[in-house]
Amino acid sequence: MLECMEILSIATQKGINVYAVKGNWQLDRSIQSKIIAMAFSMATEIERDLISQRTKEALKGGRFVKTIIIDADEQEYGTNPIAVRETDQYQKEYIKKFVEKWDDLIDWDKRAKGEGNFVIDLLKARGVKRVLDVATGTGFHSVRLLKAGFEVISSDGNVNMLAKAFENARRHGFVLRTVQADWRFLTRDVHGHYDALICLGNSFTHLFTKRDRRKALAEFYAALHHDGLLILDQRNYDAIIDNGFSSKHIYYYCGDNVTAEPDYVDEGLVRFKYTFADNNEFFLNMYPLRKNYVRQLLHEVGFQTIETYGDFQEIRDEETPDFLIHVADKRYVSLSRAKPEKGVT
Question: Is 172 within the bounds of a domain?
Fold first, then answer.
C-alpha cells in the first residue's frame, strides 16, 4: 500500500494523469485531484513513520529472531551436506548465482513445447479465471497463464526467484503481481480465494517434514474457492529410489549443455547436482515424495477427487514417466457419485 501511494504521489508531482476505472476517480490537474494527491502524500509519510517505529520496537524487543540469507556467494550446507534435511534450506540454495542460471536449465521454449497446453487446457475446461501460482520460480507458468488470459497472482518463498520472475515477465510485456510467502502461512500473506492454485516445478519436494507438508496443503485448500482446483507436480521419486535415475530430458529441465542428476539418494533425501556449461555446479536437497503418499496427503486435507498424470498425459502401465502431475479437486463428491480416480495403483 505504501508503494502504491508513493507512486501516485510522484506521478502527480510529475504531471502524469492517473485514472482509476474501478474506483471512478482520477488524478489530473483539477482542485479535487490536488486534494487527493495531498492526502496520498500525507498518508505515505505517516505510513513510513509507522513502519519505521514498528521496526525499531521489534528490534528493541528482540522479536526478529530469524535471518534468511538470500544474497550469499555460495550455497551453504555445512560440513555434511547429506545431513541437511530441513524445509527452510531452500533459502540457502536458491542464491542469486544459481537463480541467474535457472532459465538455462529449464529453457522456456523447449519446456513449453514439452508441456504443451496441458495446464492451460485443464484450467479452461473448468472455467478458471483467477489463478494463484505458489511456486512462481523464474515466472515460466505465471507468464504462460497471463498470455492465455488468466488473472494471476505470483507467489514464491524465495525473493531471488520472485525478482527474476518479475524481470522475465517485463521482457514478455507483463507486470507480475508478486507476493513473497511461505506456504505454511500462505493465507496470512496472500488474501482472497482463487479458482485454481498451481504448485509446479517439483517444488513441493522442498518440504522435509510431514507436519510442514500437511500444513502447506491445508493452506492451499483454504486459499481455493469451494470448487477450486489444485495442480501439484513432482519428480517420479518412486522410479529414482526403486530403479535408479533416468530422464527423457524433454519436459522440465530442457536446457542444452546442462545436466541435472542425483548426487546422493536414500529414502529420506535426493540430492541433485546441476552442472552448467561453464562448469559451475549447484545442488538441491529434496525430499523424495512417493506418488501414493502425496495422493494420501491430498485426501487427508480434504480434496475429494485426485487424478494423477505422467509427463502431461494419462499414465500407461508400460511407461515410467519422469514427472507426475496431481490434479486435486475440492468440489464435494458423495460416495454414490464418486468415479474411479486416474493414477491409482
Answer: yes
Same domain, 189 and 309: yes
Considering only CA atoms, which of 200, 52, 44, 56 is closest in space to residue 114?
A: 200
**At which residue does the C-alpha cell 492451499 appear?**
220
Segments forming the whole domain that contains residue 29: 2-61
Three-class HEC string of 301-322: CCCCEEEEEECCECCCCCCCCC
Residue that the C-alpha cell 550446507 belongs to:
77
Helix (H) or strand (E) holding 188: helix 186-189
Which residues on adjacent β-strands are paired with residue 324?
A: 234, 310
Q: Say how many domains are in the chain.
A: 2
Neighbouring C-beta atoms of residue 209, cutoff 10 Å: 12
Q: Whole-angstrom Cα distance, residue 246 to residue 267?
A: 17
Whole-angstrom distance, CA of residue 297 vs CA of residue 209: 12
Residue 342 has what DSSP assignment?
T
Query: Is residue 326 a contact partner of residue 292, using CB atoms and an 8 Å limit?
Result: no
Q: What is the mean pLDDT of each run of 10 residues along the chain (345 residues)?
A: 58 70 67 66 59 50 47 89 97 96 90 92 97 98 98 96 96 94 96 97 97 98 97 95 73 68 95 93 97 97 95 73 95 69 57
Furthest CA-CA distance within the chain: 73
Q: Is 189 helix (H, G, I), strand (E, B) or coil?
A: helix
